[in-house]
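Help! Submission page says 'invalid entity' but I think these are all valid:
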Amino acid sequence: MPVGTQATVKGLTQRDLSEDLGVRLLLANTYHLYLRPGHELIRKMGGLHRFMSWPHAILTDSGGYQVFSLSGLREIDEHGVLFRSHLDGELHTFTPQSTVDVQIAFGSDILMVLDECTAYPVSHEYARESMHRTVGWARQACARLRHLAKEISTRHALFPIVQGSMFRDLRRECAAALRDLDADGYAIGGLSVGEPRPLSMEMVEATEDLLPRARPRYAMGVGMPEELAEYVARGVDMMDCVLPSRNARNGCLFTSEGRLIIKHARYRDDERPIDERCQCYTCTRYSRAYLRHLFLSGEILYVVLATRHNVRRYLDIMSEIRQAILSGSFPEYLRCVRAVSEDAG
Amino acid sequence: MPVGTQATVKGLTQRDLSEDLGVRLLLANTYHLYLRPGHELIRKMGGLHRFMSWPHAILTDSGGYQVFSLSGLREIDEHGVLFRSHLDGELHTFTPQSTVDVQIAFGSDILMVLDECTAYPVSHEYARESMHRTVGWARQACARLRHLAKEISTRHALFPIVQGSMFRDLRRECAAALRDLDADGYAIGGLSVGEPRPLSMEMVEATEDLLPRARPRYAMGVGMPEELAEYVARGVDMMDCVLPSRNARNGCLFTSEGRLIIKHARYRDDERPIDERCQCYTCTRYSRAYLRHLFLSGEILYVVLATRHNVRRYLDIMSEIRQAILSGSFPEYLRCVRAVSEDAG
């Protein structure tokens, strides 16, 4: 899923996303949109799909991660979290019920339950206490959606989030408890918080046999291009990450042959596209030399073209993975990805 | 002509410009592209059209205006101008011959001769001396292109530039001298340098009967939306201006009913498009409320969508003008524009 934090994937129009890139599911951020422009305004405007003119599906996160990473002073207890807006310092409260209400105001297709995303590293004791709180919140959020479902005609999925920091026993205890909620899908949170990558993989593996196989599993906030197949190999169906768009803006382009840092002098007169195997609008029309010129000139068109390519690269990788699974060659595909990745490393 | 200073109209892809907006002629800046990425690189990349992936025509200015407005220390004599780059302070020289060479390296379809664009106000004495220099440079530039034309297979138009500050006699003397060059077209420069608008109009009128009517006339760096018809009424065929794109970025949108300042609170929950009569991609898909949200959030997509609308507005005005001329109703059209403009004023 491309990330559309503020109800926009930075630099891409909704037509670029839908028609050129074939995106069918976007992520938007509950925390950001709750603060600005506000969920009541979005509700009044006919929901997030209509507000941002997006004809396909939207997943919104719970806001938990942003509360813990962006906001100032916060107090947390079993009822929810009190936090200061990073925009104006005002105090706000998120509860498991209120974040469901906010996401229903958005009209999100897939909602996330409020969770506590612990820092890394954290003590087993705190991780356990926090995980239990997240499980309790998931129960309350599910109850809230069941209650609301009686009043609204639209259908919405709600995913609880597996937490437990980097402790295998806590992850398993959490997944087992959440499984009882019989949710539409399950998210795996608390990854990409600074831990070494083998540990992230281990934490995904920890609950592989516990989460229901017939429901989608969503690893939140991952990963690098070469990691996507690793997560899929561990049972993950969905991922979101700001990397393709953020790295594009910073001048790092992903290609089928690795990373390309566009500012490097070697691309000054390079007539080739970013990736000769890529069929995106950028690669079929523009040279590395032109993109480098736009990047060095600080031109907006650079962001537009680079983001379009990087998002396409991620979608192409996922498409390759799906194809490999369908044709029974995924183990071989994974071996190739690992070999290339080790060569590059 | 939309303005593509650095070989890009800020925020718009070449496909947006060509297919969505129907643009067939873009302006690019000789001064900027000479400094970065450099005309020799652009020549090596196959010329500006290929470098920026633009399939239609390109007009490049002479660099004169930028030398006088952007660069530091400069010395001017009859041979040309010595100036410091605003990027790194390095010294460069432009001569009437060298700016033709640079624009030929770009492969521009329409080249401008090097001119001195005087500040406003300036003495009659200085304006006269400067105008004579500009006429001399135009002769040298034309001679240079005739010389080069023997060696190159492509065809290029070269426009001399009428100067003379705000002095009617100097403008007429300049136009009469330039007419003898039998050029492909004529530009009217030195406008929009801080003078009151009636004076700009007077200066265009001053040479109306002197410039050959069968050749295009290009008023450089103008104008506001309500002024376009005024220039056309004075014989102008071509204009360029950064206003549609720059104002878009600053939050000022042009509509068929006047200006719209997108940050205003009244648009907070306004579901209407920027302009209900506009058929651009932005107006057919997005609300004022969404655009305001993007603007306040500092999102790149705001620039993309707002620029697309404002450029379309300018193109629509020019299209209305052409239609009015063809149907014989231009005088009436001009009266309407003036009435609306006076109401707004």
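Support: the input was valid. A stray whitespace character was the problem, and the output above is from the cleaned input. The interface with chain A takes residues 6-15, 36-37, 41, 44-46, 51-53, 268-269, 271, 281, 285-287, 289-290, 293-294, 296-297, 299-301, 303-305 of chain B (CB under 8 Å).
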